[in-house]
Specification:
CATH class of one domain: Mainly Alpha
CATH topology of one domain: Hydantoin permease
Helix content: over 70%
Radius of gyration: 23 Å
CATH architecture of one domain: Orthogonal Bundle
Distance between the termini: 32 Å
Oligomer: single chain
Strand content: under 5%
Structural class: mainly alpha
Largest sheet: none
Number of strands: 0
């Protein structure tokens, strides 16, 4: 079986052209997007004050930067993408499991981002015609029963989908060009939206003076704990497949410094914009709840010129983020399944098709579903993968890989017919402990029953049973899904490899390649 093609092969040293500026711009382009805005504004919608929301965002992004830089190391040193890097820990065939799990999450994100971009084009159409967009009642009445969206929304979605497809077919260099061009423009557009909120709502003291809705510390932590996990989960996807980008880095310094400059600061800045503007909307539109969706908000602003500029900015932001964050990884992951048949471009087209089939607009019905079910839910799946890969590369192999063996059968990473049972078992355990909590959150009837039972126990009208205690335990675990999965799976893998002495024997089949970029 062939294990390589042009897209999966190591990048030659001469082709590693990405500098600190490129990585910083990459993260600015990915972080300045509608989901980042809604991530922070959703915490306001859930009851946090502005500083509580920003603290949660900042802490989550500092935490996720650590596995991001660690996983990036192998990509820079050996020029290999994520699915090939995963072969070292999961086996040359077993790597398809984490690669496909990551790819499916990316397909979901591709659909979500494309839906946001399509909504921006939808609003832009009415701005160009000088008309007000339809209100919520008109949109609800026009929705197609089976699809859950209006014909106009679906047309705009597929138009934006085609724009993504154009860059997919152009390849990764077009993404670097788009990110570099878009980054300064996107920040300026976000600051303009903040200035509008400041002018319309009054001073920042008025905007940010609204207190938290939580009455007790327990109420705060009930939102903070899963909220922090969601912040980490937001970029848990990129913390796995970051080698897809750092394989083009000139040096370790370029990738590490570029990411440190571009990720936390940009996320905090754009999150502040989301927090401040969302906090301002009750002052601008008295009697209404906070408007946490910027596309909906801009439709309420009025003025064809303002809407035109804003929607163009949102479209560029969404396009640049979608291509970098949600196409590169699944395209390589699908290619890893059958390298001789699936190229990067074919994998990108598959991503776009699957991302549409999931009907992403149904994942965005409420801020609670977006944060606590989608973000925390998939972090429970991806955290264990990151823990295993980092434990394998840094603790077991001491950053030394036999690159030739990553691309052939029968080498150091063959394990049992291409599958590494220990890594797969650690993944199953790390993700499995969070499954009951995910079901309690994701299935409406289970969630309603759990909440109702908790209220009865708190009021003293019911006596706790073993089932109540088990449900409460697993639901509490789920609030920390990424952390538990990361450390549990990584710890199991490291302990198992240490006991088997695999850290010394795995590289005996062939010597490690020298590092052309350190």
């Amino acid at each position: 079986m062939k294990l390589t093609n042009e897209d999966l092969a190591p990048v030659a040293a001469a082709d590693r052209t990405w500098s600190t500026m490129h990585f910083a711009a990459l993260w600015v382009g990915m972080a300045v997007c509608i989901p980042t805005y809604t991530l922070a504004s959703g915490l306001i919608d859930q009851g946090m004050s502005w500083w509580q929301a920003l603290l949660t965002v900042a802490l989550g992004n500092v935490i996720v930067l650590v596995p991001m830089v660690l996983n990036a190391h192998a990509g820079t040193k050996y020029g290999i993408p994520f699915p090939v890097f995963a072969r070292a820990s999961f086996g040359v065939l077993g790597a398809n499991v984490p690669a496909l799990l990551r790819a499916l999450v990316a397909c979901g994100w591709f659909g979500i981002q494309t839906w946001f971009g399509g909504l921006a084009l939808y609003q832009l159409w009415f701005a160009l015609r000088g008309e007000a967009p339809p209100g919520p009642e008109a949109i609800a009445a026009a929705k197609l029963a089976l699809l859950g969206a209006t014909p106009g929304q679906l047309f705009a979605y597929f138009l934006f989908w085609c724009m993504n497809l154009f860059f997919i077919l152009r390849g990764t260099e077009s993404i670097k060009w788009l990110e570099t061009l878009a980054a300064p423009f996107l920040l300026a557009a976000g600051l303009a939206l903040l200035a509008w909120a400041r002018i319309r709502a009054g001073s920042f003291g008025d905007i940010l003076g609204q207190p938290s809705k939580f009455q007790t510390t327990g109420q705060f932590f009930a939102v903070f704990a899963p909220g922090l996990t969601a912040m980490v989960g937001f970029w848990a996807t990129l913390s796995l497949n970051i080698p897809d980008f750092t394989r083009y880095a000139k040096s370790q310094r370029d990738q590490a410094l570029g990411q440190a400059i571009g990720l936390p600061g940009t996320m905090l800045l754009f999150s502040f914009i989301g927090v401040a503007v969302t906090s301002a909307t009750p002052l601008i539109f008295p009697g209404e709840p906070p408007i946490w969706d910027p596309v909906v908000l801009i439709g309420r602003v009025g003025g064809a010129v303002v809407t035109l500029v804003a929607m163009l900015a949102l479209s560029v932001a969404t396009l640049s983020t979608n291509l970098a964050a949600n196409v590169v990884s699944p395209a390589n992951d699908f290619s890893n399944l059958a390298p001789e048949r699936i190229s990067y471009r074919t994998g990108g087209v598959l991503t776009a098709l699957i991302g549409t089939l999931i009907m992403p607009w149904k994942l965005l019905e409420t801020s609670g579903a977006y944060i606590f079910t989608w973000l925390v839910g998939y972090s429970a799946l991806l955290g264990p993968i990151g823990g295993i890969m980092i434990a394998d590369y840094f603790l077991v192999r001491r950053r030394e890989l036999a690159v030739d063996d990553l691309y052939r059968r029968g080498g150091a990473y063959e394990y049992s017919r291409g599958w590494h049972g220990l890594a797969l078992a650690a993944l199953a355990i790390g993700a499995g402990v969070n499954l009951p909590g995910f079901l309690l959150e994701a299935i409406p009837s289970w969630k309603e029953g759990f909440v109702a039972r908790a209220a009865e126990l708190a009021a003293g009208t019911a006596v706790a049973t073993g089932g109540d205690r088990a449900a409460g335990f697993f639901r509490a675990l789920y609030d920390y899904a990424w952390f538990i999965g990361f450390f549990l799976a990584g710890g199991i893998y490291w302990a198992g490899m240490t006991l088997r002495g695999a850290g010394q024997s795995a590289e005996r089949g062939s010597p490690p390649e020298p590092a052309p970029a350190a």
